[in-house]
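wait is this the right file?? whatever heres the structure
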């Protein structure tokens, strides 16, 4: 039988435990925060991570340190964050491959929807369907006609098997009913080099690649993969408006935390990201990297991640790749 003293002690302990969790959230951050980056230093994702780290450190009064953990396309970094304590001191600057493509290709040992707490999608970037200037196609329709007249004879480049550049093209070829030869490269730069040389006819590359190379006159931008036109290519229509409604493939970078991270911390971080996205200087720094600022809510970002899973699973299937 519980004595009055024991009862009072139990009630006091319960009251203390209820009060501690909110207090911890309110005190956060009380020490440096790690932002795990899934790629080596120097790339786009790393650049975004360092911009965000500096901004959050300034606004929240504690250092936010970008830590690069490469390997397995970012899977190692994702696992590191998934297994971290859900206290807001380990975050992940996730990109689409870890959250959409790689889980469709292999057993990554994490669930992109269940094992992470979305905070905010920071920025996105579309892809541009580029052709070598010697290809006699000035529009997407003309390109489709050109390839259709040469089934299995026209080659396209990608940054590698299973990359977004590969799967985006596979999705488009399926929609357009086209047969092309896939030539994978070890990254975007060699793919662009062979596009410029005319060894391949087309490449579904990043907007940054397209901007840099369109100025040479050696490539032509036919269409963009977003649902709106790009300011850098105002004359290039979207693929959706060119006869393929609903077609949209973009890459993105967003901030997530381990599942179970206190909602107060998630909301606090999301609010700081959203405030940053309204800052003109911060916007200029992001756009200089070739991305479009987003800064959405945790719920909106969660929807983006969830919707992407079936899209990229379909793309893997269409590309003829077998999960392993």
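ok assuming it is, sequence goes like this
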């Amino acid at each position: 039988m519980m004595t009055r003293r024991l009862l009072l002690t139990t009630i006091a302990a319960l009251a203390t435990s209820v009060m501690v969790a909110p207090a911890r959230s309110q005190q956060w951050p009380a020490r440096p925060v790690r932002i795990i980056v899934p790629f080596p230093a120097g790339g786009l994702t790393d650049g975004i991570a360092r911009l965000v780290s500096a901004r959050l450190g300034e606004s929240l009064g504690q250092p936010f340190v970008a830590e690069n953990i490469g390997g397995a396309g970012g899977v190692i970094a994702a696992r590191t964050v998934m297994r971290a304590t859900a206290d807001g001191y380990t975050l992940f600057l996730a990109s689409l491959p870890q959250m959409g493509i790689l889980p469709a290709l292999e057993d990554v040992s994490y669930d992109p929807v269940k094992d992470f707490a979305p905070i905010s999608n920071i920025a996105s970037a579309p892809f541009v369907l580029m052709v070598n200037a010697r290809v006699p196609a000035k529009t997407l329709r003309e390109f489709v006609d050109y390839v259709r007249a040469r089934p299995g004879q026209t080659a396209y480049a990608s940054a590698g098997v299973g990359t977004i550049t590969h799967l985006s093209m596979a999705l488009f070829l399926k929609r357009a009913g086209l047969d092309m030869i896939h030539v994978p490269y070890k990254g975007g730069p060699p793919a662009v080099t062979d596009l410029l040389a005319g060894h391949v006819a087309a490449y579904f590359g990043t907007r940054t690649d397209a901007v840099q190379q369109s100025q040479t006159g050696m490539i032509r931008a036919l269409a963009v993969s977003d649902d709106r036109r790009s300011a850098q290519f105002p004359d290039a229509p979207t693929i959706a408006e060119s006869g393929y409604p609903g077609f949209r493939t973009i890459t993105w970078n967003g901030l997530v935390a381990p599942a179970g991270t206190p909602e107060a911390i998630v909301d606090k971080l999301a609010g700081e990201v959203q405030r940053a996205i309204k800052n003109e200087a911060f916007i200029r720094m992001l756009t200089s990297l070739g991305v479009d600022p987003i800064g959405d809510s945790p719920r909106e970002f969660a929807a983006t991640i969830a919707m992407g899973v079936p899209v990229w699973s379909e793309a893997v299937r269409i590309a003829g790749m077998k999960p392993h």
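The radius of gyration is 23 Å. so i think its the right one actually
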